[in-house]
Specification:
The chain is α/β, with parallel strands linked by helices. It is built from 9 helices and 9 strands. The protein has a 5-stranded parallel β-sheet with strand order 1-5-4-2-3. The protein has a 4-stranded parallel β-sheet with strand order 7-6-8-9, with helices on both faces. The chain is globular.
């Protein structure tokens, strides 16, 4: 995997194919909409992880708790010696979101299949609709590593601090304030549009190639350095709900090896609805939802 800082966090589609029957490997597919992906066909022996139900709390706005994470891994048969491989649709958005949540609770031996569903399909590899079973284990998680996560007060506290870099990974239209959410998620917009003051606009998709695999490390380093995002700074990435920024968090932390990277999963759906927080808007006519 080139000269990435932590190449061990990525596996190729060929590696997955050759380990598809390995009892010490648990393959997990994480999709935005399982009915349009996993249920139509998935990698053989891959288990579905529903991002809304399995890695988010279904009642309050939060990721799953430590106890919920332990139940998930126990149900999936993930033991301490199990290698977990994540992949999914939407160019691995939600697979990266799962990776981030798993990392918070100290999961070891977790890897991302470089290229996700798209690369597997482009290589004409086989799909199945068979749903695998897994023997239940008792998994014990570590305490949450809060250094990987940023909250609204954390972001407010570092505004204007040159030791920090805020990275807005949304589309340019969202960053400028022309729209408050992507058109396909128009019902999930915020009351105000724009971006957090001082944030650098580095859309998440600029880190990947046409086949959805990650760009070489030199290109990634230049991408972020050109916007003033360097490894000597403490970086906070955000998007709309934290899934796209998980993808960028993964790039910064593991591929580039930045020592201090946090994902602000409250993101614009929280900041853009909060009362009294500063907002920068570059649109000719600012969007205000009533």
């Amino acid at each position: 995997m080139g000269d990435y800082a932590h190449p061990e966090v990525l596996v190729t589609t060929e590696w997955v194919h050759s380990h598809i029957d390995d009892p010490n490997v648990r393959i997990l597919e994480v999709d935005y909409e399982p009915s349009g992906a996993y249920e139509l066909g998935h990698v053989r022996n891959a288990h579905l992880v529903d991002w809304k139900r399995d890695i988010n709390d279904t009642v309050r706005r939060d990721i799953l708790s430590k106890q919920q994470f332990e139940k998930l891994f126990s149900r999936l048969g993930v033991g301490r010696g199990t290698t977990v491989v994540l992949y999914g649709d939407m160019r691995n958005w939600f697979a990266a979101f799962a990776y981030w949540t798993f990392a918070i609770y100290g999961a070891a031996n977790v890897k991302l299949m470089n290229g996700g569903r798209r690369k597997w399909a482009d290589e004409n590899r086989a799909w199945t609709t068979d749903v695998p079973s897994a023997g239940r284990v008792e998994y014990t998680a570590g305490d949450a590593n809060q250094k990987l996560r940023a909250y609204l007060p954390d972001v407010k506290q570092v505004l204007g601090n040159p030791a920090y870099a805020l990275v807005d990974v949304r589309s340019p239209a969202e960053f400028k304030g022309e729209i408050s959410a992507p058109p396909e998620y128009s019902n999930e917009g915020a009351q105000r549009a724009g971006h957090i003051p001082g944030a650098a606009s580095i859309p998440w998709a600029q880190a990947i190639q046409d086949d959805d695999t990650f760009k070489p490390v030199d290109q990634l380093r230049e991408l972020y350095a050109s916007k003033g995002v360097t490894s000597d700074k403490q970086v906070i990435a955000y998007c709309r709900i934290g899934e796209r920024s998980s993808h960028s968090w993964f790039v910064l932390k593991y591929l580039l090896g930045f020592p201090n990277v946090a994902n602000y999963d409250g993101s614009w759906s929280e900041w853009g609805n909060a009362v009294g927080v500063p907002v920068e808007n570059e649109a000719a006519v600012p969007v205000a939802v009533h």
